[in-house]
Specification:
The complex is a heterotrimer of chains A (312), B (494) and C (316). Chain A is mostly helical and 312 residues long. Chain A has two domains: 59 residues, no CATH class; 216 residues, MetI-like (MetI-like fold), CATH 1.10.3720.10. Chain A contains 13 helices and two strands. A two-stranded antiparallel sheet of chain A has the order 1-2. In chain A, a hairpin with a 7-residue loop joins strand 1 and strand 2. In chain A, helix 1 packs across helix 12, helix 4 packs antiparallel against helix 9 and helix 11 packs antiparallel against helix 12. Chain B is α/β, with parallel strands linked by helices and 494 residues long. Helices cover 36% and strands 13% of the residues of chain B. In chain B, the strands form two sheets. In chain B, strands 1, 2, 3, 4, 5, 6, 9, 10, 11 and 12 form a ten-stranded mixed beta sheet that branches. In chain B, strands 7-8 form a two-stranded antiparallel ribbon. Chain B is globular and about 70 Å long. The relative contact order of chain B is 0.14. Chain C is 65% helix and 2% strand. Chain C is built from 13 helices and two strands; from the N terminus they run ααββααααααααααα. In chain C, strand 1 and strand 2 form a beta hairpin. The two termini of chain C are 39 Å apart. The chains are: A mainly alpha (312), B alpha/beta (494), C mainly alpha (316). At the A-B interface, helix 4, helix 6, helix 7, helix 9 and helix 11 of A face helix 1 and helix 3 of B.
């Protein structure tokens, strides 16, 4: 975020700004910090009444850093490591949240995001470069589509999913859920992509076409690389959206082996109603990949968000 | 692995498209564009049109490759059984660990006995949406299991056309005569036909910590108020129960109904319409208002997520009005005296009861009334559209044997076995089951929904109304609110 | 089938119709996943399923939905939720963005930390907030349940009943659990709004601000008369996004309040889920879904309209 510096604030207020920002950041991080603390508690400390913030009290002292009872019990029960001869690490992960559902979600997120990028790029390019009949109507239509709540479509998609299975086609939950994710996250991505292509001068493509590229070739050879940061942004945005999506996965995936991770987490929550440390650990493990991804690609996320909503 | 192939092929697809710039554009013929973006129903991986004559490496390995049904190898045929349990979940501290372990032990027995013929294929379903999932699957004529575990009212399934009529078949079976009549009635719909095979019956009971009620559980509401006041003075609430609207009014199948019925209350008029505005119901609600207002009920009773169990597990409350299968979930107990029962399995409560630290009792009833009790049945339905009817029936015959029925009841669903001979099994001769039997005999146990044909619709309406009258707005006009609720339901019944 | 003839010309038939091919995959995906389901929902809203099968019932589903005792309450709750969610998010986003708009050290670090909630799933966010106030075991429960602080019995966020409504029939002031839900949703939406406003502020030309300062305007006047009017379109876009997301999200409710206590946090989207998947009345759920969709469309139209006016008569 390197915009021009503004002087809405007169010079002396610098420390006020720091103070305010630090307060906001601390408050903002509080729920995350508390969840992490809980995830490292033992079950005995979880069910203490009244609850203690830190598991560090002793009979004589309210807080004693050396007496803290931190534990990996929660993480252990999420991962369920079992000694195994075959595994390279010497352990097998038998907890399904990571071993099965995590893998499913990675698959859904990667594949859906690739398709979304591809489709959004081609149609965003078309909207940016061509004026055809119904151009504006289509663009508006795509935005109008986002007004249909996901929950509305799920009623129908739910019935559709069941219906398709009866046709006797080689059907797979996974194809269906990926298709649904692509459809859900495309409209916004098309607008983002159009914005990126609008910012790329047309002369470059024309030059490429004179040099012998077909229009499509020019698109992928010349324009696409320039639009790459935008495409990465769309990929990241979709990836995180699919990773975090709950309801569609919960309702549309019927085979246990194909469940996405948020479904697994929700079910896990239902099976561990008072084992708060276990659920907190599961949350931490599941959130970790997207948080890391965000830390590495944050600039792309910011661009995608601003593009998508300001243009939309 | 399938996934890896899919990923690689996708990458290739994208790379192919990216390379789509012809070196000699005028000469290269463009391939028929109609072939590429074929409007397939799947998210056709190659649908981006290709500009050059590139090979299409991505057509074959679509992720649809695994057909669900096995080919004609002499393999045993699956009997698909939807349950709330997961035999592959090894977590010993999972809330449903007991049921999971039961399946893990029992499925191999069945599969061994029917080697080459049947295979018990358990499909675990999320408890909170398995009913809707089945109804939707049947309505859309989708993938329906052969067997389905129900703990709900049978009427919902009959009303939606989801369950098969098993009357004629069941009556022809040897075990039918051995069924407990109340179990049969719990599986019989309002049209008089049998739609599920009962495996167990689960009456409501009150679990009592002896230290808090040393002289026996109160017999009348007045007695309850006196004893509860004494407990309250010691800082102990007398009662905890599922009093929240959590789970779309699921509490109606539990302690709430125990109390309503103990006052002689009911929810229907005997002819399929909802009837709430009765003097008995009003008396029950007034009693519940009083015990809540005076602090005799735990606050966690209204928290949902089964939080109400916690106070009982730690001995912090006097009694717990719930179903008699609660022992499956009440693991790791601490009696008020400090004695711990911490095996972490179904034996914890049974041990505490055998040791005399806790006992079972019926809920207090006013003079002239019998203690109330909701009778839930656990059973199996054969859904409409089941593909393996023979297997389903053979499975039922197997599970209804005197060897298997007690095991399923004890380990998976809880309650009393539906077969009278199973009851003589040594597992049911323990103090726990003897006491539960006495409670059931002393109570008037019947399914809460009576003649209501749409229990899944009635449930949230009744529970929300009762909750609001008792907890949220304890000064509201009871009769008016009850009338409004029954009218809302009855409008739907033609 | 034989496009070779066309390749004789400079532009092939394929190249000329390129926009169609470029748009086709997107359009197909949207048709299958968005358009068809919407049409299906319209059909479904006129149907009811009984033991025999689907049956046409006209507008019965709508009529019975609206006469549900819970419907009116749910509408009220949705309004309360949205008003406070939007107000808090916009205010918080506005303040944070202004603080960040000043070039300071570590602003990158601040932004990064502030943004982490935005990549967390609603399921996780709901659980995190429930964790803080869960009955018996929540981190703050011990503090809140102290009768000395909150007489007479302490404050149990998830079970405390709503105060008596000021206007009969309209659920305001809301229950503590509703505040928890509003807080959780706001926490999740705040980064997004902050970023939008920040981007808009940074596009305000520095000269305009300078010249007004020379004219003697103070901080407040600059913000009020120069900056706010310029970023107003962005604010409207942000509001529209926040409303849409708030209106349609149920995952946070699932894992935080579960719609309770009683019906105190059952906003329309949760009611829709409950009618569909708990009461198993798909036709009626479809009717509710359409009502929600209509409100959404109205909002979108209003926003498009508004941004058009604000930007003069530019193209969207």
């Amino acid at each position: 975020m390197n915009g021009p510096s503004h002087s809405f604030w007169s010079g002396k207020s610098r420390w006020v700004i720091y103070g305010a920002l630090i307060t906001i950041v601390v408050l903002n991080m509080l729920p995350i910090a508390l969840t992490l603390i809980v995830s490292f508690k033992t079950h005995e400390d979880i069910i203490r009444i009244p609850p203690q913030l830190f598991p560090c009290d002793t009979p004589t002292q309210a807080f004693d850093l050396s007496a803290c009872r931190w534990s990996l019990e929660g993480y252990d029960r999420v991962l369920m490591l079992q000694p195994s001869q075959e595994s390279f690490w010497g352990y097998d992960m038998t907890g399904k949240i990571v071993a099965t559902y995590g893998g499913n979600t990675v698959l859904y997120a990667v594949v859906s995001s690739l398709f979304v990028v591809l489709f959004a790029a081609t149609s965003g390019y078309a909207f940016s470069r061509y004026r055809f009949r119904g151009h504006n109507a289509l663009l508006t239509g795509i935005i109008a589509i986002t007004g249909v709540p996901l929950l509305t479509n799920l009623l129908a998609l739910y019935q559709m999913g069941i219906g398709i299975r009866t046709l006797g086609l080689p059907y797979d939950d996974r194809v269906f859920i990926i298709l649904v994710y692509v459809g859900f996250f495309l409209p916004l991505s098309v607008w983002i992509a159009k914005g990126f292509f609008d910012a790329i001068p047309r002369d470059l493509e024309e030059a490429a076409m004179i040099d012998g590229c077909s229009p499509l070739g020019a698109l992928f050879r010349v324009t696409a690389p320039l639009a790459a940061p935008g495409m990465i942004a769309i990929f990241m945005l979709t990836f995180v959206n699919v990773w975090n999506e709950f309801l569609a996965g919960y309702l549309l995936v019927t085979k246990n082996a194909n469940k996405p991770v948020m479904f697994g987490l929700y079910e896990f929550l239902g099976q561990n109603l008072v084992n708060l440390q276990v659920v907190a650990a599961a949350c931490a493990i599941i959130a970790m990949p997207v948080v890391i991804l965000f830390l590495f690609f944050r600039r792309h996320f910011f661009t995608a968000m601003v593009e998508g909503s300001v243009k939309g | 692995m399938n996934k890896r192939i899919l990923l690689i092929s996708l990458t290739i697809a994208v790379l192919t498209v990216l390379a789509a710039c012809a070196p000699a554009p005028t000469a290269t013929p463009v391939p028929a564009p109609t072939s590429a973006p074929a409007p397939t129903s799947a998210p056709a991986p190659t649908s981006a049109p290709q500009a050059t004559a590139a090979p299409k490496p991505t057509e074959a390995p679509k992720p649809t490759a695994v057909p669900p049904t096995a080919t004609a190898v002499p393999k045993p045929k699956d009997i698909v059984f939807w349950t709330q349990f997961d035999e592959k979940n090894m977590d010993p501290k999972s809330d449903s660990a007991v049921g999971n372990a039961y399946l893990r032990d029992t499925m191999p027995q069945f599969n061994k006995q029917f080697t080459g013929k049947w295979n018990w294929a358990n499909v675990q379903k999320d408890f909170s949406k398995m009913n809707a999932e089945l109804v939707a699957a049947v309505q859309a004529k989708g993938e329906v299991p052969d067997l389905f575990q129900i703990s709900l009212d049978i009427n919902t399934f009959v009303n939606n056309g989801t369950a098969q009529d098993l009357t004629a078949w069941a009556q022809a079976q040897a075990w039918y005569k051995d069924l407990d009549p109340s179990a049969v009635s719990a599986c019989t719909a309002t049209n008089g036909k049998l739609y599920c095979i009962p495996l167990s019956i689960r009456p409501q009971v009150v679990l009592v910590w002896k230290d808090h009620f040393p002289n026996g559980y109160p017999k009348t509401p007045a007695d309850f108020l006196t004893q509860a006041a004494a407990l309250k003075a010691k800082g102990v609430p007398a009662l905890t129960y599922y009093g929240s609207t959590f789970g779309d009014g699921n509490g109606i199948t539990r302690g709430m109904t125990t109390m309503m019925f103990s006052f002689g209350g009911k929810y229907d008029d005997g002819k399929g319409k909802m009837l709430l505005n009765t003097p008995e119901n009003i008396a029950a609600i007034q009693f519940m208002r009083e015990i809540v207002a005076k602090g005799y009920v735990t606050e966690s009773s209204f928290a949902g997520n089964f939080q109400e169990e916690e106070a009982f597990k730690t001995g912090a409350v006097g009694s717990f009005a719930t179903g008699m299968n609660a022992y499956l979930f009440l693991n790791t107990l601490k009696a008020p005296s400090g004695t711990r029962y911490a095996k972490g399995n179904l034996n914890d409560y049974l041990d505490a009861l055998a040791a005399g630290d806790t006992y079972l009792a019926p809920f207090p009833a006013p003079a002239g009334k019998t203690p109330g009790c909701n009778l839930a049945a656990s059973g199996i339905i054969v859904p409409t559209g089941s593909k393996n009817l023979d297997g389903a029936k053979e499975f039922i015959n197997w599970i209804m044997t005197p060897q298997q029925n007690p095991q399923f009841v004890l380990g998976a669903v809880g309650g009393f076995p539906a077969l009278k001979t199973s009851l003589s099994n040594s597992s049911f001769q323990t103090p726990y089951f003897k006491q539960a039997g006495q409670v059931m005999a002393a109570s008037n146990c019947r399914p809460w929904f009576g003649t209501l044909t749409k229990p899944s619709v009635a449930q949230p309406i009744i529970m929300t109304t009762l909750y609001k009258l008792i907890k949220e707005d304890p000064t509201a006009d009871i009769a008016a609110a009850l009338t409004k609720a029954q009218e809302e339901y009855n409008k739907d019944i033609k | 089938m034989s496009p070779n003839i066309h390749s004789l010309k400079k532009q092939s038939w394929f190249d000329k119709s390129l926009p169609v091919w470029l748009l086709l995959p997107t359009m197909l995906a949207l048709l299958v996943v968005q358009v068809y389901p919407t049409l299906y929902t319209i059909w479904l809203s006129t149907q009811e399923h009984d033991a025999a099968g689907w049956k046409f019932v006209g507008l019965d589903n709508f009529e019975r939905l609206i006469t549900l005792n819970q419907f009116g309450e749910s509408v009220g709750l949705t309004i309360v939720f949205l008003v406070f969610h939007v107000a808090l998010t916009m205010l918080g986003g506005f303040i944070t963005a202004f603080l960040l708009s000043r070039k300071i050290r570590f602003s990158g670090l601040f932004i990064t930390l502030l943004f982490i909630p935005w990549v967390l799933s609603h399921v996780i966010v709901g659980f995190m907030f429930r964790l803080m106030v869960a009955p018996d075991y929540g981190v703050f429960t011990g503090y809140l349940m102290d009768p000395a602080r909150f007489p007479p019995n302490g404050l149990s966020i998830l079970t405390a009943v709503p105060p008596k409504p000021w206007i009969p029939g309209f659920p305001f002031p809301p229950a503590p659990a509703m505040w928890l839900l509003i807080l959780a949703s706001t926490w999740r939406a705040l980064p997004f709004v902050t970023l939008l406003i920040l981007a808009a502020i940074q596009m305000v030309p520095a000269e305009v601000v300078e010249s007004s300062r020379i004219d003697g305007a103070n901080n407040w006047q600059v913000i009020r008369h120069i900056v706010v009017p310029l970023i107003l379109p962005t604010m409207v876009v942000a509001i529209f996004n926040v409303i849409l997301n708030g209106m349609n999200g149920v995952a946070i409710i699932f894992t935080s309040t579960g719609g309770g206590p009683g019906t105190a946090t059952q906003i329309l989207s949760y009611l829709l889920y409950s009618i569909g998947w708990s009461r198993i009345q798909f036709g009626r759920a479809a009717a509710l879904a359409l009502i929600i969709a209509l409100v959404n469309w109205a909002l979108i139209l209003a926003t498009l309209r508004f941004t058009k006016i604000e930007e003069g008569h530019d193209q969207v």
